[in-house]
Design a protein that fits this description.
The structure holds two protein chains of two kinds. Chain A is mainly alpha-helical. Chain A is about 75% helix and about 0% strand. The longest helix of chain A has about 35 residues, at about 1-40. The chains are: A mainly alpha, B mainly alpha.
Chain lengths: ~290, ~270
Amino acid sequence: MKNNKKLHNVGIFLFFGGPSLFAFAVVFLIPFIVGLYLTFTNWHINNNDWSFIGFSNYVEVFRDKTFLTQLEFTIWYVIFTVLISNFLAFFIALVLTSGVKGERWLRAGYFTPNLIGGIVLGYLWQSLFSRVLPFLGQKYGWALFETSWLTSTDKAFWALVIATSWQLAGYLMIIYIAGFTGVPKDILEAASIDGANKSTILRKIVLRLSIPAIVVCIFLSLSRSFLTYDLNLSLTKGGPFGSTELATYHIVQKAFLSNQYAIGQAEAIILFVIVAVVALTQSYLLKKLEVEV
Amino acid sequence: MPARRLSAILKNTLMYVGLIIFLLPFLLVILNSFKTTQHFIENPIAWPKSFSFSNYIDAFQKMNFMQGFINSLVVTVFGVLLIILFSAMTGYLFVRFKWKVNKVLFFIMLAAMAVPFQVIMIPLVMLYGNMGLLDSKNVLIFMYMGFGIPLGVFMFHGFIKGISYELEESSFIDGCSRPRTFFQIVLPLLRPIIVTLAVLDVLWIWNDYLLPSLVLLSPANRTLPLSTYAFFSTYTVDYGPLMAALVMTIIPVLILYIILQDHVIKGITEGAIK
């Protein structure tokens, strides 16, 4: 009887869990473990008798000046993207939730850039930066736009930041709106009856009470911008002269163009660790500011 | 109060003007998709001389739009269906059977959600390449299932926890088996969370570039993002058709968005908060 029950349970487990666990294991788990192991070997596409070499791939990564420069470039890109997209999203959400006609339509409108993927997004902005803006710049004598932004490293950096923030802002806005709607109306009313002015209410109450939303938004914008690839490929293609290659772009090139799988994988893991540490630290620090209602 | 009125008008204007500026990139691309390349280069902000669809016809043929569209459709539809069906079943398993193995597996899936694709892609291509499994839409669909399962299980787990067990119990008393109870009683109740998950997964799979670019090699297998990329790399200066190609790529999702607007917004909110 007991055996029968056990058999029955195994049947249920396999029926309900079998297909998804198989796919998860074969697509995610096994490659993940193999990937970790790979970084400790000198495996190479043309090198079939590879051996265990310890941490030398990681040492190699930290000696690679190009990768370090690109990592630094990525970090600056992340900082500005996170700041700009969150400020924009916060501001739009704040105004939208304060009683605007047609809020639903506005919200849907600001969200539209998120319907498109990075490739289309990049080409959209590429035509703007390389054609439309220089045209306006030359016509009206705006020196800033006279040449295409994509031909200089500094301006191509801002092109990447602007295109990413444009898309992210609409996404984060949705989350901020959900956060603001959670702020109880009676607290706001009580505060304004007590004579608190708008900026005090914003700073002391709204900002404080929407910290959970802020944590989520910063977390999302951090991880999304750290891992940007498609947009980088279509907007700047890493150029001019490879000066705007973000970390993922570098990893893809290293692995699939130079065939240095093991080093590429070590770089991917380092990138992952950086994202995880930064994202967790910010949630930890910001959550300390959280207040209970 | 006039001052309050004024600030309300100001606020409304600001938001609507802001939205137009925000959507300007789209408007410019639509406008230019009707112009010849020469007219575009001469003046990219001018109104088109005539609304001719020749760029669209040109792009449609050159980028093999129909093929890319059908490939994207097949991959997205089957990918999303598999994710929903199997993660609902596994979510149910994890909620209703509190075995140790289930708890461990659920924890592993939660942890997996934090791991970016970048960490998986190299060994994935290596392993599947060695087995000769690349360049197949079926394998790509299966991969999407594997990558989509953790979020799916997590969301169904949270939802099923809130469903009372009584309904199911009465169904057992009537002599229904577990699988039958799940499909007849539980699955219909999951509708709201299915819609949410479907929205998130459709947007992800339809727009994804990196995974299909590594898995699909032959042009006949290309999904829309891949054919857009190929088209832009080949016809770099032929702006008229390129703009039309962008519009055509955006339109399918845009139509879906207009129909399912509220669901999309709701799905994004719930997906992010969780």
